[in-house]
Specification:
The protein has about 280 residues and is an alpha/beta fold. Helices cover about 45% and strands about 15% of the residues. It has 13 helices and nine strands. The strands form three sheets. It has a five-stranded parallel beta sheet, sandwiched between helices. A two-stranded antiparallel ribbon has the order 3-4. It has a two-stranded antiparallel ribbon with strand order 6-7. Helix 9 packs across helix 10. The radius of gyration is 24 Å and the shape is elongated. About 25% of the residues are buried.
Length: about 280
């Protein structure tokens, strides 16, 4: 199996190398990068590119590592025992499989996405060390040991909201998705909007990079946001001249798709004010 990208996902050479290295080493691939740079989509496209089923585990601030293995529903068992239900005699009826168990028990190789691991408690990665390393865990209620039938391709994403433990990092192959260069971003745009005119694409990306590279931005717009912006531009049937027509304002048309904080909008409004003052 070798990943080179798909028709819907432009993978840089170093990203493809990272994915394939993680597959060969049979280690989790830890992918970091700005929000909106395609980390989650990478896992889906790896599954598509390798022709494998995918299991997604989206981590929240309240997610516990144990939930990825299994959960024992003691409350339901107690209720059933009070009602005289015969199911209570088999504790297995009250074991709910987690996403790791699903991946381990799958009849064939799968891609397992553990999405935004940094949202959870700091102990969350530590609690999964042995399970991801040995690809097995013990179910105490039933006494069974669950082992991976086929070692899954594990892709873990992080937005860098908190540091991950060294012991966890040691077990992963790491890759940081950098924001794409203009040529790569243009190729990504063409995948999503194959009919976009080159003059419009060039003008839009020029405006976009000027905005993104502005010093002092609190949140730089991401790949997903520029795609949203271009979708609006195409829906409004704007021309390259329309994008240039208000250069003195500094804020591009439909900038709400790109700037997501009031501080960043205020920054460009101040710059526009100073530009008008200098133009008098």
């Amino acid at each position: 199996m070798k990943f080179t990208g798909t028709e819907r996902y432009i993978a840089s050479d170093d990203l493809a190398v990272a994915v394939n290295a993680a597959v060969v080493l049979e280690r989790p691939l830890l992918v970091k990068g700005e929000p909106g740079t395609g980390k989650t989509e990478l896992a889906r496209q790896v599954a598509a590119g390798l022709g494998l089923p995918m299991i997604e585990w989206h981590v929240k601030s309240t997610t516990r590592a144990q939930q990825g293995l299994y959960e024992y529903d003691a409350v339901s068992r107690l209720r059933d025992s009070q009602l005289g239900d015969a199911r209570v005699h088999d504790v297995g009826n009250y074991i709910r499989r987690g996403k790791l168990w699903e991946a381990f028990a799958a009849p064939g190789k799968v891609v397992l996405l553990i999405d935004e691991i940094d949202k959870a408690d700091i102990e969350f990665p530590n609690d999964l060390l042995q399970e991801l390393d040995r690809m097995e865990f013990h179910v105490y209620e039933t006494g069974e040991t669950v082992r991976a039938v086929n070692r899954p391709v594990v892709i873990i994403t992080s937005n860098n909201e908190k540091e991950l433990p060294d012991a966890f990092l040691r077990r992963c192959f790491f890759h940081y998705i950098r924001f794409p260069e203009p040529e790569v971003l243009a190729a990504i745009v063409r995948v999503h909007f194959p009919d976009i005119k080159e003059r419009l694409l060039t003008e839009a990306l020029t405006r976009f990079y000027v905005l993104r590279d502005q010093p002092g931005l609190k949140k730089k717009p991401s790949t997903s946001e520029v795609l949203d912006w271009l979708k609006l531009i195409l829906a409004e049937d704007l021309s390259p001249e329309d994008l240039r027509s208000d250069d003195r304002s500094l804020l591009p048309k439909l900038h709400g798709a790109l700037l997501k904080t009031e501080q960043d909008v205020a920054l460009f409004e101040r710059l526009a004010f100073l530009d008008r003052q200098r133009g008098r």
